[in-house]
Amino acid sequence: MRALAAPDCPFHAIFLEGGEHYGKTFLLQWLKTELTTRVVLIPIDKRRVVPAPLQLLSEIATHLGWQHFPGFDRAMRTQQRPIQANVSNVSVEGSYVNVQAIAQESEDDRLLAAIRLTGAFLDDLRALPDTLRPLILAFDGYDASTSLIDRWFDGVLVEGLCDIEHARLIVCGRQVPSTSMKLRTPAERFIEVPLTGVADEQEWMQIIASLKCRLPGDDDVSRAGYLRGIVAAFKGAPGLILAHLKAL
């Protein structure tokens, strides 16, 4: 993950996969403090709210400064138009009749609009000044489905970002599907990082010392056994183990 900050890094995408409490969000927050390179962290947890493509792109532009996205800004203003509906060839009988025409865009219409906006966004991203290069865009909370956000994210945004030399991409989720996103990412440009937990209790000794917590037990053997039990019970999940240690 540190290597993404190097201008000549051969990898443009990292897919960080692991279950809940296995440290995906923690690693992204750590990366922001570890690197001097600009790291833009965007949450896309659809269990809370499903973001629209325009919302995600606008959030990135806000982080980096709208002055760097003139083309995207123009494209966005051009597409902001009211949807109109006409009622015709309708016969109505009776008194106090109210006829309303309700028009909605289909998901395919919204996808097409998102594709146009993304093209303008990527053009502006290619022209970023040297002071913002390389740029790491990290998306946390990815969960594949057949919704508009995933059809656009997998098929349009990821592929476009991987074609920009100074752009880096991190996608965090419980599982990143090989049949969509990874298939569209050049094989030599991405790596998979599965988070399987920290199952070796010795790895936790330094953390226990830094937390200044005391494990239950009368001697080192019993305390080591207690620690092994914690690690085994939580299956090495760092978030759960750390919360238990802090409670001590």
Which descriptors apply to this entry?
42% helix; extended; 248 residues; alpha/beta; 9 helices; 12% strand; 2 domains; Rossmann fold
- Rg is 24 Å
From the spread of the alpha carbons, the general shape counts as: extended
Record field, number of beta strands? 5
Distance between the termini: 32 Å
Order of helices and strands: EHEHHHEHEHEHHH
CATH domain class name of the largest domain: Alpha Beta
Counting copies of identical and different chains, the oligomeric state is single chain
- The helical percent reads 40-55%
Mean pLDDT: 86
Strand order of the largest sheet: 2-3-4-1-5
What does this structure look like?
- It is a single chain.
- With 248 residues, this protein is an alpha/beta fold.
- The chain has 2 domains: 2-79 and 102-194, Rossmann fold (3-Layer(aba) Sandwich), CATH 3.40.50; 201-247, no CATH class.
- Helix content is 42%, strand content 12%.
- The protein has 9 helices and 5 strands.
- The chain has helices at residues 24-34, 53-64, 70-79, 107-126, 148-162, 181-184, 205-211, 220-233, 238-247, and strands at 13-17, 39-43, 135-142, 167-173, 190-194.
- A 5-stranded parallel beta sheet has the order 2-3-4-1-5, sandwiched between helices.
- Helix 3 packs antiparallel against helix 4 (107-126) and helix 4 runs parallel beside helix 5 (148-162).
- The radius of gyration is 24 Å and the shape is extended.
- It starts with 12 loop residues before the first strand and ends with a helix.
- The mean pLDDT is 86.
